[in-house]
């Protein structure tokens, strides 16, 4: 724990919390259809879109209609990405003449981007044409994020409304999310990133003669004299990839790639972008339910878990690899080096920025990486994995994180409400059997996908053969993969050779079930809440905007997460940690 | 009507013995299936039994003694849960039986034939049946709801309707029905009983405590869903441990995969058996606690709703005030002194045995030390109150002393060709405007003054309302009085709001308004005209003394007919929910320690390094697992008293209540099993298991 | 009912595809190419002959003793393949990692047998992208004597060069201090403008 490290973390959190509030309030205005300064500029685009697609923006949808609209839109989205991939060789904007993508990989990627997971089974620069990146993946980065936000807003309306049949209009929520939130932010952010060195061009890959034309001896099997540098329209995509908790990189190495994340400043901004909208949405929630403190309580709970776990990752990575210490490798921190476990990390980011990113990306279901989680120390790598397993609710995906957290709030309120002798209520809505049923489904689905998927993979050869690292670490690779897919995160212990029919299919199904298996019950809760009366708050009501409630929420999330995954984690990172530190 | 409390010790030998037998009967799969959590334990027990038997002949995947030990304790877990339920049922049934046999205090004069002076037998009110004829004379309580078939009488219904003034009941017409628990003040009535006393409720209540017919309450259903979800999660966690373990053995190249017995043990320890095993006992005990308070609930849902009540509608008379008005001042007119008025008033009241009358005599004594005089010593004749004259008084020789309502006295005075002084009328008006009742006193043709009869707020009621306020419950006083009086009494009693000049329609409207704002409303009622409001209210407590219509409309009956009991009902409802919440939290918090006990033990052969997690330093893997299973079973038994008694409830705001309970049951739930499992492990080791 | 949203769903997707998939990246590209052409095209280092020497953001492989060596790269089929970025993804307890580290240590020791100082960790561990352009100042300092000897330069001169090419943290706070290996080596070769 260095002073500079603390300073960087503090600066990061301060910037995050400072920016979250104005953005959150702005987003509340967007979704409540209040006039904005951007309306004059983008209003005609919005109105044109509704005319073009024959949508009545005034229509108030029942939850079933909302879900149907969402599902059709996402289905067509997935199909579009699928067909772009399997046809890309014959389509324009493919200067590298990349081949058509295999069916299983195309399925996996289509699902991955439609579900906001952005798991990369493929390697960007060697697989996807510029057209596929832009028109397929880039578009999904926007609309899948806007979909998640729309579902959250629908749920918030459930709390807002009384005796209402509808929960809003999916088309307007989707449109406004893209037009007034994601697009303007991405545009500005993309240009800032270009300024830092992120590429944005349609030129083909560059070939440049190497400085060292003849290497010494055995390092390179075939002598290289030129370096082919992959470039492309990356900045526009990276901006939204960070902001929309997408995480699917333009390049294989994701945000560790110097063209995706060239400088400490670009890194700082990209890290900020990971958590910005999820954090801001807490304020949106507070504003929309008419009590900013409700939003604060949830944001505080998220932040506390995030910071505590960040320190675990940081501490664990900074302490380095005990195996290397015995080889005479200098791993201690000094003014001249970051030290610690530098395997799979970039020099410009060192330990602290890698740890912040890993924790944030695990927390936020972003899934982008600026270092390779597979090479993390067992405990350092366990943290992002566990954050995913907690249900992607510590910040979580845009929209999805908060709606997941609100479901946990329902569970917390349920048990706590009983403890104070009342039928539990949250924000004036009584939590009854239907809500508990839906909440149970929401908690069960990821647990089933993660544990069931891992169990399947560790008994079939198709699962085991993809493992890159031996021992308990291999188990962690598979556990991480299914956690990432089910939690719609997208990051990986990337050693796992998951671009196989088995994993493409199994993880694809996990992503689908992990996304829509949760969205549908969340919308059902929204519908059920909207139809209920609103119970007035009294002194006998459990207050949900206090530190005690934030602690209770943290306790619930951690308890459910721990109880579900402790045995699995014990056989993965925990035992790896014990063995690694025991034998050295 | 003296309240009878059916207090009984937490356990009695009869109940325990009966419960013991029941415990085994409940092993039928159909019974077990009703409780999903315990059904998993049940299935697990069957599985390990099978594995043990199989292992005896074919060699199992674990040592036979270990498998037997686990199996044994798993069955105990099931039996303990059954036992908890049986005990709760037994207690409630015993309480119900006690209630059924309890004699009511009202003695009825049951007539042999419908004639005023026909011979009668004295019977207690529960013995009355529909169609029986009873004679009710001045001073008698009406034993049951009925219809007047002969006679005219003034009846004091204040304890029930809140109306202070006596009402007239006569045969035929609109005023022919009388209500159980009211009191005939003058004259007599012959009444045909129209309803059987509250036995129907008792029967329904007894049905509720018997598991065969018991319906789960909404909240119980919601909680069960959560418990099932947790059970499924843990099922998932343990089932997948088998492939995980097989893979780990493969990759670590040491040890053997975890045995099914250990997995079942882990599963049973993790699933919320503590709350699952005690859930129905808590519900049954809640009904039992209501019965202990002499309240019969017609559904568990009603008890649960009682915990949620936001608004209490309380009748002024009988609940907030003592029900009978008390003399508070003598207001003379003209040159008459206060003492003269008091003296005359006392004379007029000597034979009046009503509480109001007594209060006049007491006030006269307090203020002027006027000694009580014997009516026969004065040679006076007592003129009783009658519905026709609406006055009472005495005749001493020539003197005709009367007291009564203003218009009655006016008629009396004017009948003697005297002038009724306007000052008397004005004074009576002033008193009425203060919310008190004016009683005029006349000596012959001369009006002496006014006695002010005031409602007296019950002692301690203000504090109770304060408690309710801290619980977040709003109190609304319902009264037939005018606004001024109502406001004065509301302020004195410390209620939050009041409804004055209440009509049944206004009451119903008030309830609907409160409900429209999302509040849950509780009320007590007894009159037939209360029925619509009772039906509308979420928690409706009918007085046992009330009409059959009221009882049908309500969802609880208070055998003591004590309206203040609503407050206790609310507390009992809260207690029931709190007990569920506390045990759920406790159950889940327990899992932490169980993981620390079982996970290192289960994989000891593959990963000895996991021993670092054995922070309790348990002796061996098998003793660790067995200790956890035993702890899990014993904790159910240990918590039976808590489930039956309920978590202690103190009126506090929600935040403080939650903090305390989280600390006790959450924090305790984390710590207790660490200690318990360690102790059991030490014991097992000592016994060299 | 269920099929009602099909038409708007298709049309919406078309509209958003055009807006966010074509118009948005085109506008960003035009703006970037207009205002930030150097960065937008890969931050190439151009020499006096207008010849690209490499990208200052993308590392190159160096294995000769007279050059500063960068981070080990795990790209395939050869290190620093900027067409296929990748990390090694070796777990911390993977014997293959220890083997690889030992090989790298041996290479460093063989290239400069006199240097017995502990080796900075970033010199023997693979970077995340396989294209890391930087090493830590400690890693640069560690190699100074070898370069000085191989190039027959006085040590202080190389030290001075390393110092010049050491980039501190941004605002003394963000990131880590680092040395751009390509630029440092180009400076050694005196090919930098």
From TrEMBL, chain A:
<dbReference type="InterPro" id="IPR004623">
    <property type="entry name" value="KdpA"/>
</dbReference>
<comment type="function">
    <text>Part of the high-affinity ATP-driven potassium transport (or Kdp) system, which catalyzes the hydrolysis of ATP coupled with the electrogenic transport of potassium into the cytoplasm. This subunit binds the extracellular potassium ions and delivers the ions to the membrane domain of KdpB through an intramembrane tunnel.</text>
</comment>
<keyword id="KW-0630">Potassium</keyword>
<feature type="transmembrane region" description="Helical">
    <location>
        <begin position="177"/>
        <end position="199"/>
    </location>
</feature>
<feature type="transmembrane region" description="Helical">
    <location>
        <begin position="548"/>
        <end position="570"/>
    </location>
</feature>
<dbReference type="GO" id="GO:0030955">
    <property type="term" value="F:potassium ion binding"/>
</dbReference>
<feature type="transmembrane region" description="Helical">
    <location>
        <begin position="268"/>
        <end position="289"/>
    </location>
</feature>
<feature type="transmembrane region" description="Helical">
    <location>
        <begin position="296"/>
        <end position="314"/>
    </location>
</feature>
<keyword id="KW-0633">Potassium transport</keyword>
<protein>
    <recommendedName>
        <fullName>Potassium-transporting ATPase potassium-binding subunit</fullName>
    </recommendedName>
</protein>
<comment type="subunit">
    <text>The system is composed of three essential subunits: KdpA, KdpB and KdpC.</text>
</comment>
<feature type="transmembrane region" description="Helical">
    <location>
        <begin position="6"/>
        <end position="28"/>
    </location>
</feature>
<feature type="transmembrane region" description="Helical">
    <location>
        <begin position="506"/>
        <end position="527"/>
    </location>
</feature>
<feature type="transmembrane region" description="Helical">
    <location>
        <begin position="441"/>
        <end position="460"/>
    </location>
</feature>
<dbReference type="Pfam" id="PF03814">
    <property type="entry name" value="KdpA"/>
</dbReference>
TrEMBL record, chain B:
<dbReference type="InterPro" id="IPR018303">
    <property type="entry name" value="ATPase_P-typ_P_site"/>
</dbReference>
<dbReference type="GO" id="GO:0008556">
    <property type="term" value="F:P-type potassium transmembrane transporter activity"/>
</dbReference>
<feature type="transmembrane region" description="Helical">
    <location>
        <begin position="37"/>
        <end position="57"/>
    </location>
</feature>
<keyword id="KW-1278">Translocase</keyword>
<feature type="transmembrane region" description="Helical">
    <location>
        <begin position="622"/>
        <end position="642"/>
    </location>
</feature>
<feature type="domain" description="P-type ATPase A">
    <location>
        <begin position="120"/>
        <end position="210"/>
    </location>
</feature>
<dbReference type="Pfam" id="PF00702">
    <property type="entry name" value="Hydrolase"/>
</dbReference>
<feature type="active site" description="4-aspartylphosphate intermediate">
    <location>
        <position position="315"/>
    </location>
</feature>
<dbReference type="InterPro" id="IPR036412">
    <property type="entry name" value="HAD-like_sf"/>
</dbReference>
<feature type="transmembrane region" description="Helical">
    <location>
        <begin position="662"/>
        <end position="680"/>
    </location>
</feature>
<dbReference type="GO" id="GO:0005524">
    <property type="term" value="F:ATP binding"/>
</dbReference>
<keyword id="KW-0067">ATP-binding</keyword>
<keyword id="KW-0460">Magnesium</keyword>
<dbReference type="InterPro" id="IPR006391">
    <property type="entry name" value="P-type_ATPase_bsu_IA"/>
</dbReference>
<keyword id="KW-0547">Nucleotide-binding</keyword>
UniProtKB/TrEMBL annotation, chain C:
<keyword id="KW-0067">ATP-binding</keyword>
<keyword id="KW-0472">Membrane</keyword>
<keyword id="KW-0633">Potassium transport</keyword>
<comment type="subunit">
    <text>The system is composed of three essential subunits: KdpA, KdpB and KdpC.</text>
</comment>
<dbReference type="InterPro" id="IPR003820">
    <property type="entry name" value="KdpC"/>
</dbReference>
<keyword id="KW-1133">Transmembrane helix</keyword>
<dbReference type="Pfam" id="PF02669">
    <property type="entry name" value="KdpC"/>
</dbReference>
<dbReference type="GO" id="GO:0008556">
    <property type="term" value="F:P-type potassium transmembrane transporter activity"/>
</dbReference>
<keyword id="KW-0630">Potassium</keyword>
<keyword id="KW-0813">Transport</keyword>
<comment type="function">
    <text>Part of the high-affinity ATP-driven potassium transport (or Kdp) system, which catalyzes the hydrolysis of ATP coupled with the electrogenic transport of potassium into the cytoplasm. This subunit acts as a catalytic chaperone that increases the ATP-binding affinity of the ATP-hydrolyzing subunit KdpB by the formation of a transient KdpB/KdpC/ATP ternary complex.</text>
</comment>
<dbReference type="GO" id="GO:0005524">
    <property type="term" value="F:ATP binding"/>
</dbReference>
<comment type="similarity">
    <text>Belongs to the KdpC family.</text>
</comment>
<dbReference type="GO" id="GO:0005886">
    <property type="term" value="C:plasma membrane"/>
</dbReference>
<protein>
    <recommendedName>
        <fullName>Potassium-transporting ATPase KdpC subunit</fullName>
    </recommendedName>
</protein>
